[in-house]
Amino acid sequence: MSRIVSAIVNNHPGVLNRITGMFLRKNFNIQSITVGTTEVDGLSRMTFVIGTDDSRVMEQVTKQLHKQIDVIKVNDITDQPIVARELVLIKVFVPPAQRAEVNNLIHPFRASIIDVGRESITVEATGKSEKIEALIALLRPYGIQELARTGLTAFTRDQSSVSEGLRVSKNSTLVI
Amino acid sequence: MNTSLQQPERTSEKKSERTTLDGSHMLLESLRRESVEVVFGYPGGAMLNVYDALYDGGISHILSRHEQGSIHAAEGYARVTGKPGVVLATSGPGATNLVTGLADAMMDSLPLVVFTAQVATTVIGSDAFQEASVVGITMPITKHNYQVRDVEQLPRTIKEAFHIATHGRPGPVLIDLPKDISAAEGKFDYDKPVQLRGYQPTTVPHRLQIRKLSNAIRQAQRPVILAGAGVLHAKASEELLQFAEFYGIPVVNTLLGLGAFPGGHSLWLGMGGMHGTYAANTALYEADLLINIGARFDDRLTGNLEHFAPQATVAHVDIDPSEIGKNVPTQIPIVGDAKESLSMLMEESVQIGDISVWRTKLQNLQEAYPFWYVEDGTGLKPQRVVELVHDISNGNGVVVTDVGQHQMWAAQFHPFRDPHKWVTSGGLGTMGFGLPAAVGAQIGLPNEPVFALLGDGGFQMTMQELSVLVDHNLPVKVVILNNAALGMVRQWQQLFYKERYSHSLIPKQPDFSKLAEAYGIPAFVVDSEEDAAAALQQSMKIGGPVLIDCRIAPMENVYPMIAPGKGLHEMVGVKP
Predict the structure, then answer these.
(1) Nearest to residue B488, comparing CAs of B540, B419, B559?
(2) Which chain A positions have a beta carbon within 8 Å of B147's beta carbon?
(3) pTM for the model
(4) Cα(first)–Cα(last) distance of chain A, in Å?
(5) What value of ipTM does the predicted structure carry?
């Protein structure tokens, strides 16, 4: 099983390198990282999918992340109510005769065709990783020519903003 | 010591009063604001602006003969003074020569602020002359690092660096300074407080956790304290002594924690781990409550984790939460400074049960199984040399070691009574550390006798630093335990590689006494206990550095020992 960790970090040059270097150094098995800005200037959110279910490893992941000077807040959000999405682009070999069939196939996934070539189409979909996996499995028999996934990005449902999260962090003492 | 270390007249005072300075003078003014008295360094092209500013005075500079010497000296200085060691190095090779020292300081949690020069911002990334990506290289081996791209950010960066290096768990912080930034003019403002949202170490522990530990102490029948270097960093030796004496709990030190609890005290069991005492390792193995204060459960301490403290409830006091539960499952985690934690524990002052049987057992073991060596006529015993060093200073000297057999003999046969008198490379195990670290220790404690106990292998890795002893007439007594071998490697090859001594025997070592003389350092060569004692006596009468080449028994091994993969209860060589 995988765990999802969300971190708010300073938006400085080198921070991503610093964090991924720490993962390498500590031998943590990382499945995906996404990074993007937040609603607060100077802060970014990183979402990590960690390929372990070992509670001691996860404790170390969050502690080692928290130890980084550029990390403001860390949360293992796997077991919390979260909104989680991943974007995938899939270029599939589909001759014109089969396009209607594929279009019907991807419809329940709320995926859409965003590019059409002579021999292929490109499908875009967003959703939880399981949904993306299912869509890929469905399209694989047609012949996937190229595939690009963003990795998961997520935050908790009950946390309305990053700034609110920071307030919580500021007022709490780190107790294990 | 000669006068070159005296504070020169501050000819740059006028500059510090201006609100606008160039980057180099900003750097120096910032160091003054941080009460830095001495920096260790080596000049080079990209650092010339800073070195030119240094010429104006105000800060003493110790010129090493290799950048590795600078940073180990800064480590020695930091270890004995508790103050951050400051290092200057140029770009490229100057900076990369610091890598070993940075990793060493990171492993042993020593506060350093390291300035490396960088090529000008206009050519960064162009593979310019003496360019190296120092921030990238040193990211994994520093507590934090910076590259300054705007001269007006330099004061804030330096202030943050000192804050990070010295607050919470100490560690090395590096600032990479491009040459054009060190020349650029800008507004100097050092008054803004440090604001680091992502770095707010918890120093005061949670009362609930303290109570949990107090309750565990109340119920314990076989408690033991494991005291690490965290006690020394927090300057909590006095509190540790009070705590241990109040409850009568025996104390085991880690290698780096030696001196945190007075060696020779009736509750002291000595060092634990691979070459520790039988009593200390028995205590760790049989304890029902293990109170770890500021140690990180290094594998050389724990041995095989499957057999480590199998019956114990583990309490771990550490200012770095990531150390708690990292290696050993911990039932009572306490995040906080050792001094604060011990003070709060004393406030609880619970009634402890009768643990006299446990205490007596361990004290008896300590007496029955002391460290030993056999006077078998095979030559000068290195253990005896360590005892002589202890005797000559009445146990008051600062002992600095390199890494290897001699390091373990020093840890075993020199009971450290006082904190901050023991300087060694514990975590990284850096050969070549000893001589330059002794330079820094002597600069930090100019009035204390400093002994550099070195092996012949490690000495040759940084022996060029003898020059620095001469430059400043530092009265370091360099005692080489010379067995013409890489002793610890040879011992492992003897024990675990069927006596196949692959590249560990070096019978044609140079004549170290002649080398010393070439540097202008008086030297002795000794191969008997009587001569060693006489040479040490003589050396104490000489005001400057002295080198004593002790030709020791070549096949002497470090015992007792726990073989790799074995548990603390599987010591060998406990008795002769």
Answers:
(1) B559
(2) 14
(3) 0.94
(4) 23
(5) 0.91
